[in-house]
Amino acid sequence: MIKFFLMVNKQGQTRLSRYYEHVEINKRTMLEAEVIKNCLCRSKDQCSFIEYKDFKLVYRQYAALFVVVGIDQTENEMAVYELIHNFVEVLDKYFSRVIMFNLDRVHIILDEMVLNGCIVETNRNRILAPLFVLDKVAES
Questions:
Q1: Do 83 and 120 touch, CB atoms closer than 8 A?
Q2: Tell me, what's the pLDDT at 98?
Q3: 0.70 exceeded by the pTM?
Q4: What distance in Å separates the CA atoms of residue 78 and residue 17, rounded to the nearest whole number?
């Protein structure tokens, strides 16, 4: 099961966070700082899977952006690694340039892909269908 999903820049600033288990706000801040530190200090030659406390971290770097997913011990690391890539490809397909001004759309995309910590959809067309409907409604 997925515990959390983070998008972080190279400066260590969290740009998007979604938790699938209740974590208090002050603990989230500490958790994110530790997770980000662990991922940012690794070289590109090192593995993208990290054992951390009672869960695993799976991350990928895209230019100046890191996508980090915390998972429990039963989740398949490679499936989550591919989920991250699929998520970024969906973002790339929907947004032509800047995504940080459209975080509501990013959350919709993530919600279409992951529900209660479980991967529920990977088909790009099905993921983007609700957004295209919203765009049509906004245009009219």
A1: no
A2: 60
A3: yes
A4: 21
